[in-house]
Amino acid sequence: MNNEIIIECSSDFSLKETLISGQCFRWTQKGESISGTAFSVTVEMYRKDNELVIIGDSSENAAERWRNYLDLDTDYASIKREVVALEPRLAEASNRSAGLHILNQDPWEALCSFIISQNNNIPRIRGIIERLCELCAEPAVNGGYAFPTPQKVSQLTLEQLASIGCGYRAPYIIAAAQAVCEDKISFSELRELPIEQARENLLSLHGVGPKVADCMLLYGLHRLECFPKDVWIKRALEGEFKDTALVGSPYAGVAQQYIFEYIRAI
DNA sequence: GACCAGGTATTGC
DNA sequence: GCAATACATGGT
Fold this sequence. Notes:
Helix content is 48%, strand content 11%. The protein is of the alpha+beta class. A 5-stranded antiparallel sheet has the order 1-5-4-3-2. The protein binds a DNA duplex through α6, α12 and α13.
């Protein structure tokens, strides 16, 4: 394992806050390093002062790819200042999540993962996703499995999906996969459309409601204005962040992540 | 054994 | 339109 990439990055980035957070489900912390799979490549990453070390990806554009995935070129310090200015009660939560970035995940993986997430808990979501990958994805470079393509998923039977424990969500998963295959859902379109239209588009999928649509747009297409409201966030909006001005701001999604991690940690 | 989890579809008023 | 309810599953 000598294919080591070194990426310069500022102190304003935290691997742990970013990858061990509710926005993704396939990363695991082992001591000081974090390992997982994205773009069909399995890597291990750790932080060393102002350098990020990534082990396991020997492809030519590896550094650029991970730089983009981890969103290292976005100025989160200024985003944080902006949302805290708008909502002073966010000061503590944003400090606790210091260095959290919103990933540039594969949009299909985000859509599928958050369909699975509905009325479900995080450990179980992770388990279902891993079993889905083992069931029908290609082996990843450097071990483990890729995330399965929509083509592969669309061909699964309800029985196969039942066998990995995804419960009543099985038909939703197949419907979403088919919609992507048939280009009824186009991620390149969703990336460009005004947010309300992008949302409408996703809501046409059976099994995708407002929360999953917002998660898909925020985590899969980096639409940072989306503010997914799950049970935890709704609780926060009733209590500690009652009548917040955050919803509707251009970086509401980043604030949402701060609040999500904060509320859950209490 | 009831209750909960990064909700949604369906039904009934 | 809005409030209730069923839905699979596994953990507490």
